[in-house]
Amino acid sequence: MDFNNDLSPIDILTFITDELLQAYKSSSGENEKARTIVKFLERWNDDISIAKLKGLTVEFESDLEWFNVSCPLSITGLQGKVIILDFFTYCCINCMHVLQELHLLEERFPIESGVVVIGVHSPKFENERNAANIMSAVQRYGISHPIVNDSRSGMWRAIGIRCWPSLLILSPSGVPMMLLMGEGHGKFLQDFFSSALSFFSRQGIIDHRGLPIKLFRDFQPASNLRFPAKIVRSPNGQYAIADTGNNRVLVLTAGGVVQHRIGGHQPGFVDGNLTVARFNNPQGIAFLNENVLIVADTKNHAVRQISLTNAIVETLAGTGIQGNERIGGRLGPLQPLSSPWDVAIFRTRDMDMSFHLDERNIPEKTIILISMAGTHQIWGYFPEGIIWWKFRKFEPCCCVSLIGNGLEENRNNSYPQNAAFAQPSGLAIAGDVLYIADSESSSIRKASMIDGKVMPVVGGDRNPLNLFAFGDIDGRLFSAKLQHPLGVTFNDANNRLYVADTYNHKIKIIDIDSNDISTLQIKSQENTNLILNEPAGLCLDASGKKLLVADTNNHLIHIIDLVTLIAQPFGLDFRQIASASEIDAPQDIQKATENNIIKTLPLDLIKPSKIFFNLRLSPIFNFTKEAPQKWILKTVCQSVIVNPSSGTLLDGMCHMQVQATRPDFMCESSQIFTIEFVLNLCLSNCCLVKKITVSIKCDDMPEEYISIHNVNIDIEQ
């Protein structure tokens, strides 16, 4: 079609991208989807309506800081690569989700295949312009592709990028081809790059050389902590720390002696005893009682429970795969979640209208409150079931949205489903009030646990759409300014709320009666100002006179005397834990606990071959009704195309087509691809999630071509 000459290149790019996505989504099968993408690629040869895009120059400024590479990169120097420019800011939850999508893409299409992912960090907050803070984020998120610190957002403005995250895809000649905004494009990206690499390879313009990669993520701090997030205290004075960068939870005495170390350096989603259980980037944590902890297992998109008495970890809610629901209501293990960031425990009486002889001794029921950062809401998990707000019935073990409509706003409202949050990241209960660190609106807010009404406390702006009202100003209500706060805790001893004002690197205190906030002037033992680095969590000791702070990017815990405001390091003593435990051998654990299956097939990949998988359940199992049984390709040999790359099982079965891209391809004893199955299964008394990884290897070339291969996998207990 012809475009109006007044349209900017970014408008043209947005239009043709939407046009492609609509055609792709309406295509009925994998072959038709591939033809749709090829047709899109072919139009670039002679379609004069998009000539304006060919004249758009995309290049990095020359004086920018780079990470994960030993020298700066340039678009000109990457001729022959299909490039993804990921415009992101490290605070943004949607950007974090896209990083997971890009990681899967990079596993399938390494740099040598002709694909390069470059993160263009375009900061929202002042704190995010700092190179050291970006380096910490690169390490914290495990990013392995090149990152450039575009601190002035020069490329963002030159191209006309409008939101985080945005993915700009460049052709091998550096021409902008497509602009994807937001998250959730993982499957499309897999299909697009599969077709694009084949298309450009036929033209002989793909460069298969590597890049000067030099990873920064292998840094290990001298302390035993790595990016600690939340810290909490039990009723009797134990502490627990979400040791996020180490993918584990620590339980320790009031004196800092570590008694339990649950999880390990390698991320995973494994239930079971304390020595084999695995977490992935746990952020939030709360004591349900003295011997039970609840964990917001953020990258696993799950809420987990640790029983110290039974020495067991189990999943309460979440499937291990990111969801996008805004309502919920399913049984916990069947309910997909989206980046739970913190948890809090609330107890209340059941409103079932039953008659009680003694109204003063009605037992309270437990509700686990969840800050669902990925959908900008507050959710609840109900272990016992309850009748609560407006006599609404919540079934036992269900997980459901409670407050917030899912829009990313700073909207207060008397009706919980009309309110809106912006990446809620910290929770604290004070009586019948839930306090919320709403990080992307840079505000502290509160919600009534009696009726769900949401009200302002400090920070942010009266305009609910203004998410840029940040700063570092003490004061009252909206006149006060914070910068991306992540943690809150309430002190019953003085009726004050303490805030980890994360991007201002400060701890602040709120008078909840007047809604006034002020900065604590904390000193070190040497009587110098205490220098924090993005603190994310805090809690009070049993007396309420000392405050423990997780100094996240400094990999430390401080304990602060609230009378003198003098801080000292809170040291951890690991000597009571066996030094040669299973936790310290994550590779061996992984081999012992994960279901890794290798199948060798007589494949002649010069011609297309179909592989049928049949997952056969033991009689003790059933596939959970209405729950997805998903599979996804984890790795694929560079010279092989596998279609489709993901899908769902039908009656335990799926199939795919495999073929080499080169006529001289030899595959003896080589691994062709790896596929992961994520199964939702039911036993007679419970439901569970089971992951199975199958690697397909190639046997010697068969004498006769076999077009169909069957792979049977028996699922035992």
Automatic annotation (TrEMBL):
SUPFAM superfamilies: NHL repeat, Thioredoxin-like. Signal peptide: none annotated. Residues 80-174 form the Thioredoxin-like fold domain. It comes from the Eukaryota. Keywords: Repeat. InterPro entries: 6-blade_b-propeller_TolB-like, NHL2_NHL_rpt_dom, NHL_repeat, Thioredoxin-like_fold, Thioredoxin-like_sf. NHL repeats lie at residues 475-513. This is NHL repeat-containing protein 2. It comes from Drosophila mauritiana.
